[in-house]
Amino acid sequence: MERNVVMIALFTALIAALGLLPKLTLASGIPITAQSMGFMLAGAILGAKRGALAALLFVVLVAAGLPLLAGGRGGLGVFASPWAGFYYGFPLAAFVTGLVMERWKGGNVGLIAGIAAVIGGIGALYLVAVPYYIIAKPAGLGESLLVVMAPFMPGDLIKAVITGLITGALYKARPSSILSRAGVAA
Amino acid sequence: MISLTSPVRTRAHEWPAKLKLAALALVTMGLYLIPELWQLGLVTLFVIGLYALPGRVFFMGGMRRLAILWPFVAVLAIWHIATATYLDGVTFLLRLICAFGLANLVTMTTALTEMIEVIRWLATPLRRFGLNTRALELAIALVIRILPSLIENGRRLVDAWRVRSHRRPGWRIVLPFTLNALDDADHLAEALRARGGLLESKES
């Protein structure tokens, strides 16, 4: 119980801290931050339920007025934009990433984590973010894909790969720390 | 930890957080019901006027917050110019500025402790479904406590990297950073358990 609460709080803080890493600017000129990788990592490492709770706690604290988003943003205002679907989607992204990790037993942990991050951190996330934009703006599907998905997709793919690399390396260093693999770990 | 509440005291600081949040939800929905562009324009001016009421410091602080909207405004402007849907574009941008501006006003005039109190209140019915609200409160306190030390650890790792390499520390820093954090979390969980933990104080 205590360990679960601490791990959830830790990953909430970790997601916030990743937002402080220096931005990487893609060739397209769009800056990407490491923050959304935090949600992938939370799911891949903590598993579905704890990962989702860490992501949910992060979103709740941002809404409460803590400047935890990359660039020191936060507060209720960010939920007013049609891009807010991302914030609602983050807990689901972590959940699905964790679920894939938990279900897909055996095989290379790093590789599975990378694939889980693609399915959860990209697939599930945009499954919330794109329809949210369509309804909140309101807009057509074409505009939504171009404005919501296209700018962030290259960065998200890079983050999924890094999530795989980090989870794989963590599994080697501390097998017991990959809670999504508890019971499988030696 | 710095929160986004404005240090400039306004009358709205005194109003109950629940009331402000309920009003915000209603008004934001109401923004979609305004039919005419000129009416929406008036509402936008009114919202900006609200920022100006408490004085210059508050106004400038608020406008700095609103500035984070510019990248979004730019993307949308390009889209609506490219598709020649100018009226839709302007309507949407004004609505976005109003909704964001009002929500941000609530954040700027409500203390973090009050917001957390609202979260606790909202979570209370979930106790019936087995949610331990004490665990939630502890988790919130832990995040606020852990974050500065995480940032400090991260800074040390970046420094250590810079001493050894002329290249910028990239994502590689995340692995030792996470390892450190996981070890600290284990110690913290043990310490909590040693002090009675959460089980005994679990509320029914």
Approximate strand percentage of chain A: under 5%
Tell the overall outline of chain B.
extended
Unreliably modeled segments of chain B: 200-204
Number of helices of chain B: 8
Radius of gyration of chain B: 23 Å
Determine the mean pLDDT of chain A: 88
Largest interface by residue count? A-B, 56 and 68 residues
Look up the CATH topology of chain A: Arp2/3 complex 21 kDa subunit ARPC3
SS content category of chain B: mainly alpha
Helix content of chain B: over 70%
Task: Name the overall outline of chain A.
Answer: globular
Description:
The complex is a heterodimer of chains A (about 190) and B (about 200). Chain A is globular. Chain A has helices at about 1-20, 35-45, 50-65, 85-105, 110-135, 140-150, 155-175, and strands at about 25, 30. Chain A has seven helices and two strands; from the N terminus they run αββαααααα. Chain A has a single domain (about 1-20, about 25-175), classed as Arp2/3 complex 21 kDa subunit ARPC3 (Orthogonal Bundle). In chain A, helix 4 runs antiparallel to helix 5. The model of chain A has no long low-confidence stretch (mean pLDDT about 90). The radius of gyration of chain B is 23 Å and the shape is extended. In chain B, helix 7 (about 135-165) runs antiparallel to helix 8 (about 175-195). The longest helix of chain B is centred in the C-terminal third of the chain and has 32 residues, at about 135-165. The two termini of chain B are about 30 Å apart. Chain B is built from eight helices and no strands. Chain B has two domains: about 10-120, no CATH class; about 130-195, no CATH class. The interface between A and B is large, with 56 and 68 residues.
